[in-house]
Amino acid sequence: MPYEFVLLAALGLGVGCFGTLIGAGGGFILMPILLLLYPGRSPESLTSMSLAVVFFNAASGSLSYGRMKRIDYRSGLLFLSAGIPGAICGAWVVRYIPRTAFDLVFGLVLLAASLFIFFRPEREPSQAAKLNARFARTIIDAEGARHEYAYNLPLGIGMSFVVGFASTLLGIGGGIIHVPAMVHLLDFPVHIATATSHFILAAMSLAGTITHAASGTLAGTLPQTAALSFGAVVGAQFGARLSSRIHGRWIMKSLALALGLVGVRILVLAFWR
To answer: What whole-number distance in Å separates Cα of residue 258 and Cα of residue 7?
Structure first.
């Protein structure tokens, strides 16, 4: 048993590091691994484990990103006003989904997101788009870099409800959906998107975790969840530091590649079963 916990902590470390680097919380990596490690457990049980780990990972990473002054707190709080209700809804719905159907939906979502991110060309928001946007933001980070961008606020809030629902439904924290949506649909700079996404993730995953805990789902997984969470908290600190040294384009490409590999793996296992 101690051997299992050491391995889970090491897994949490890797998941936390990469998840924080790309602003996705690591749930999209952790959840497929949990599906493989615990084939007899229900989707509800596994999503509760994954979401709890995502919370500790995101909370740890947010502390680092906060010190870097890369979090757009105002946008994050506005998005949370819709994301938290969505997260609570997703946590309740997942209990009614059979394991095979869950695996198929999960794999397809990951694969579709991978293709979207990888093949969508980079673009700079046009001046017309900036003028027509309803919410303009300026962020100056700890290194003095100035980030100016503008986006459609109603679209961002509506998108956040969908992300919150999907995140707790699939146990992936939502950053894997939120980051590319913020970058490609709302024109956020990549580094601001990853940091702000992590801040949003901490709150949304906490809401989903509390919902699972209230229903008793989390109680039977506490030792494994604790080991994974310990590693994720440490890994998040490494991931936040690495983010300053890696270009935003490579962060997005890494995210797309990881998504695609995991999505294909889950779909193969779902059809094989």
So the answer is: 21
Q: Which two tokens stand for residue 109?
A: 């979502």
Q: Give which of 32, 26, 1, 28 is closest to 12, Cα–Cα.
A: 26
Neighbour-count burial of 102, counting CB atoms closer than 10 A to its CB (0-12 exposed, 13-18 middle, 19+ buried): buried
Helix (H) or strand (E) holding 97, with range, is none
Joined together, the tokens standing for residue 187 give 């024109």
How confident is the chain (273 residues) per 10-residue block, as mean pLDDT?
A: 81 85 73 80 81 87 90 94 86 76 78 76 50 76 90 90 79 73 87 89 82 78 88 86 71 74 75 67
Domain count, the chain: 1
Q: Tokens at residue 240, please?
A: 């936040």
List the domain range (segments joined by +) for residue 237. 2-272
- Choose among 139, 178, 161: nearest CA to 84: 161
Question: What is the rounded end-to-end Cα distance, in angstroms, of the chain?
Answer: 28
Q: Which two tokens stand for residue 63?
A: 């502390």
Q: What is the pTM of this model?
A: 0.73
- pLDDT (tens digit, 9 = 90+) per residue, 172-187? 667 777 888 888 888 8
> Which stretches within the chain are classed as H helix?
2-21, 27-37, 43-67, 73-93, 99-119, 127-132, 153-170, 175-184, 190-214, 222-243, 248-272
Q: Exposure string (b/e) for 136-159, b if CB count within 10 Å is 16 or more?
A: ebebebeeeeebebbbbeeebbeb
